[in-house]
Amino acid sequence: MTSAGKSSSAGGLLDPDRPDGVRLTVSEANEIGSRALGKLGFSDDDTQIIMGQLIDNALCGYRFTSLPRILAIAEFEKFEDNRKPMRVIHETPVSALIDGGNNVGYVTVYRGMEIAVAKARQSGIATVGIHNSYYSGRLAYFVERVTEAGFVAIHTSCGKPRTLPPGAARPAMGTNPICFGFPTTKYPYIMDMGTAAFMWGELMLHAHLGQPIPEGIGYDAKGHATTDAAAALLGGVVPFGGHKGFGLSLVMQSFGVLSGARLTRGQVQDFGFFFVVVDPKLLIPDGSFPEQMTELITKIKATPRQPGVDEIRIPSERSFRERDQRRVEGIIVDKKVVDSLNAL
Question: Residue 307, class by beta-carbon neighbours within 10 Å (0-12 exposed, 13-18 middle, 19+ buried)?
Fold first, then answer.
């Protein structure tokens, strides 16, 4: 582990060294995070699942969804509530509805993804809903696992009210991301996007570091516009794209209701996680779908470019390219985050 302010002798690093950051190897980051999760009471198995995603998030260049998320878990109000083993409460050959037992979503959604893949292997298609859980992290991480099994995936997530409908003074929906995944013969094509203009984990990191957020995004508890991240945490953020983002966010919240959100606390505005997993051979029985997807992406990237444009980049392409490089270079974590984790 080195101070990022003292190790900038090498050029061309993906993440420049900075005085308020620490450069960690993968093993160092895993050790710090695993130790903190152990102090929070997580089992070795759950810690391994959580850290598997947090490390991958960091390697893919998603700063706020890596080690800082451990602090978010520890500070969330549901963390102090009693936890029970997750269980399937309704099941068919092609579906499962899962009560997460108030366990963190990094674990429950991972297990739900495994169930969806297993059912799709048997039946060609599966849908799984998870409720009574919270904080599942980056949707693309789960969807990539599905595409590795050769399947197409749709995965959505919704949560407690944090996003304001257009014209509202209080939040009514979660930040509500949606993710699609398609296997190819190379890297999978994965599209993962939030329906809020600013993701909540990033807002929490800004508040933890005392950094402002851009104008026009955050609102405080009284419905007044603010650039103070800490004040926005008590209020909410707006959807991206105005009424279009609002409509899409409401779709994600609806999938949460389908996943049993109301069964947790009798509230439809709560956490819900939803999967649809499809074997492409249901429609392309000769098994050529991955090759066709590769052809589609190749043709799109070969589209004539505007002057000064080096390439047409496909969503998720950057993170896949950078992941292996960061395994060698290490990852930058805010020193304040490392100190807070060690203080646990």
Answer: exposed
Q: CA–CA separation, 336 vs 344, rounded Å? A: 13
255-294 pLDDT, tens per residue? Answer: 999 999 999 999 999 999 999 999 999 999 999 999 999 9
Q: pTM score, two decimals? A: 0.90
Q: 46: Cβ–Cβ under 8 A, 6 or more apart, which residues?
A: 37, 103, 104, 106, 107
Mean pLDDT, to the nearest integer, of 177-181?
A: 97
Domain-located, residue 311: no
Q: How many independent structural domains does the chain possess? A: 2
Domain annotation covers residue 177 = yes
Residues whose CB is less than 8 angstroms from the CB of residue 293 and which lie 6 or more positions away in sequence, other chains included: 182, 183, 184, 185, 189
Could you tell me the CA-to-CA distances from 4 to 14, 25, 92, 336 in Å, in that order? 13, 12, 52, 13
Q: Which domain holds residue 43?
A: 2-75+320-343
| 76: Cα within 13 Å, side-chain hemisphere | 23
pLDDT above 50 for 9: no
Residue 249 and residue 182 share a domain? yes
Whether 6 shows a pLDDT value over 50: the answer reads no
In a domain, 96, yes or no: yes
In a domain, 208, yes or no: no
Q: How many residues does the chain have?
A: 344
CATH number at residue 146: 3.30.1370.60
Tokens 């589609």 belong to 296
Same domain as 85, residue 65:
no
Question: Of 187, 340, 195, whose CA–CA distance to 256 is shortest?
Answer: 195
Ranges 14-28, 87-101, 277-291: which has the least confidence = 14-28
